Structure formats: structure tokens, C-alpha cells
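Why does residue order matter? Because the sequence determines the fold. Keep that principle in mind as you read this record.
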Amino acid sequence: MSDIDTYIDVVPVDDMFSDRLYQRELDTKRAGQIATTWDRRLVGVLEVSDRGEHCSPRYAIINGQHRWAAASRAGVTALVATIHTGLSLADEAKLFYDIDAKTKALSTWDRWHARRGSGDTVVLSIEKIARECGLTVTQGSGPRNLQCCAALERIWSRSAPEVLADTLVLVLDIWPGEDDARKAVVLEGVALVLDTYSLSIDNGRLGDAMSEMTSRQLVIRARDLQERARGTLTQCVARVLVTAYNKQARKGQLDVEGI
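Structure:
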């Protein structure tokens, strides 16, 4: 198949499947509820991609995996679907994202997962930087995992790619194994300092300042500062870091008001 085409037909339930490359995790409870109260009039039309005769199962579900799972549980053998032909895997992921973004509220991770599957250059670039730092951008927790994908993209969008890389390297070097160090507010605070003072800051000296406290202590001090001054928590994290940086030496002082 090479030509892109779309048509509606009846598709066997057993000939459909959900591709985990871009689909969200199946909510089994939700599928069970749909199956229990099954009403064909409310099912609507699914969206599937025809992977070709050589594939078994043949049709990748783009939209409607919970209805498909419910149909299987309810003993339904076929469903009406809009069949898309000639789509690449990236095309499927993009279509999944476009349809779901218009029909329901996607979580941040649903969007990230779909964008990764569609080959989104921003997502792939951020994940490449993370991998080079020995980290993985993922929804699951772990000592080498980054769960704050939205924060990573904000850093990427606001700063040069090198700022994101330098942030991750600094945090890993100074606070290895600390869960708080990989939280959004800490990463964004460190990145804000590196970005704001990119022409005058000494990364080594900043690292020394960071090592004088734990990442948790940094956040606590920032929250205390926020109660006494204006600014977001991220800005207060950055100001705490700049203040600590300035205490390291008399020369090369940074203007805290620059944040």
C-alpha cells in the first residue's frame, strides 16, 4: 500500500490491535464499564489504520481502543470503523494526537508519548540530551528517570539546547540519586540561572554553591523566600542559587534582581 485513502467498513474485532508505540495505556476499568452497559447505538465509528494483508492483526486502532476492548469483553465480533490506508507509523501517531486532542483532554504524558511516536523533533531532541546524560524521560519513577517532560520542554523552548544539557549535568553531578533534584521546579530554577547569566556565570562555582545544600533544602529555602517576596517558585529557586553563588567569592557577583 502506498496511496493514502479513507473509507468506512465493518472490521472484525479480532483483526484490530492497539499499538503501544503511541497509544495510551488501556484503562481496564473503563473498558469493563463500557462492556457492562454495552449499547451499540452509542459506540460510534472507530478510527483504524490498515497495516496491510501481511499483518495479523491487520488494523491498528487510532481512536477507540476502549470501545474495542469493551466489544471484545462483551462478545461483539465486529465494529464499524473509518479505515485509513497508506499511513506510516508516524502518520498514525500524529492522527491519534490530532483526533484525541480535539475529542478529549489528553494528559501531558499522553501527548508526549504520541508526539514521540510521530517523530516530533522537539521531543526526540530533548530525549536525546537526556540519554546523553544517562537519564530517561518517562512516566515511571526511578533514580535515572525524568518525569517532568513539560518542564524539560519549557527549558528547551526558552533557552539554547546547551542550557538543558548543562542543567542536567550539574544536577546529576551535585545531587546524584536525590529525587527532588529531578523535579520540575529545581531543573527550571537551575536552567533559569544558567540562561539568565550565560555570559558571566562560572558553572563550577555554581556547582560549589549547589553542593552547600541538598535539593530539598533548596526548595524549602525557595518556598520561604516566596512567602517574603514576589515571584514564582522557580524564580525563587533561581534567586536562592544566585545568592549562594555570590557567597562563594567577592568577585564576579551576579545581580539577583536579574531574575
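The chain has two domains: 5-107, 147-258.
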